[in-house]
């Protein structure tokens, strides 16, 4: 009977190595086998004897099951997400695989390491847009029906929360961001600041500042994180520098 | 006229050094002066010649202004938050100080470094409770009226979002967590999993699993991060191990 291994789910942040925590770096260095989306794995330095299982973006459940099987066979396994593994990433898939898989997987040593998720990196590039209450919504309708997304956009607008929107371009039919902006324009002031942060921390990083009223799906791809301001979100113009966007810490009665 | 310095707002994560990103560690090592809440500063290794300005938890604006003045005087300044500086922390205070301060502060070199915020660390200890859409709300009514907090708890429940609740014990009068649970019990299934994560990453870390129906303010202090599940949040029992909590990635129509 094989000695039981360990599976750790990690996130390598949105881009540069200097956003990878030392705890995650240590997990990656020790692992016998890495499982992850190809482009994430290819960013990481290699180690002799370490096996890499690169897979496609849409194969999360298969990847989770293969990684759990490797841990059950006694291997030290790391499952690699971008960003933080717990936010729209591999941690939930691994949990689901455990719940629906063989009973023995519940006895495995499984751990999760926090990381820098895309919204925190995007926010850091412009100031503090997430400095007060906010909501975090994926615009992908691969995993949930569009009417539910629309309902959440409306209710979080009614609650006057800042929004961090993930996966704006993976809507199966049509543009998620375009449809989301149409909904948001009907329920937020058109003047609230919007930040479109693409490929944050990568060489081709691009930050665009807009007002909600001027937003549509143009220029948005799956590497874009969108932050939509609430009524307390402010833009500070700075001569010779890009603006700052932040949400006031004080809030008034509804 | 003094050469202009630089101010960087950083977050040192919820606890251990191995959750501090290399980018933040480099900023801290280079800084001439550190400004922050005393307990955060005392966690950091010292450097000869580096000046530390420790201040109280409630002096964010004063601290921000002093740090900006030091940067204006040509110093390399780091403002130190716990967690991520952009989530209920110093980044918003620094932005507010810039907007309301002397015009010259808008010309300063100001940067923000992302970090591991408490909810990501708490989530990593139990699985993937934030694996689907969620909202992030501070229960402190120092900065906003309680009726607004209550309204946000209700609307985000109506939207069936997972909740990450910060500052559960700083309500000026009475227990924020106790009042919040009373609201949530009236608008969420009483069976949804709740995680009370205290002092995550510290020697006295404590994780408690409950159902919403059994929750009140007992045992909750200002170092507790509360995660309240949505209808899609599940708890997996594991023999000989603590349970996993995760939110299903798939969601059904409202």
Give an overview in words:
The structure is a homodimer of 254-residue chains. The first copy, chain A, folds into two domains: 6-116, 3-Layer(aba) Sandwich (Cobalt-precorrin-4 Transmethylase, domain 1), CATH 3.40.1010; 119-247, Tetrapyrrole methylase, C-terminal domain (Methyltransferase, Cobalt-precorrin-4 Transmethylase, Domain 2, 2-Layer Sandwich). In chain A, helix 3 crosses helix 4. Chain A is elongated, with a radius of gyration of 20 Å. Chain A is an alpha/beta fold. In chain A, strands 3-2-4-1-5 form a five-stranded parallel beta sheet, with helices on both faces. The model of chain A has no long low-confidence stretch (mean pLDDT 93). Chain A has seven helices and 13 strands. Chains A and B meet through helix 1, helix 4, helix 5, strand 6 and strand 7 of A and helix 1, helix 4, helix 5, strand 6 and strand 7 of B. Strand 7 of chain A pairs antiparallel with strand 7 (134-138) of chain B, so a sheet runs across the interface.
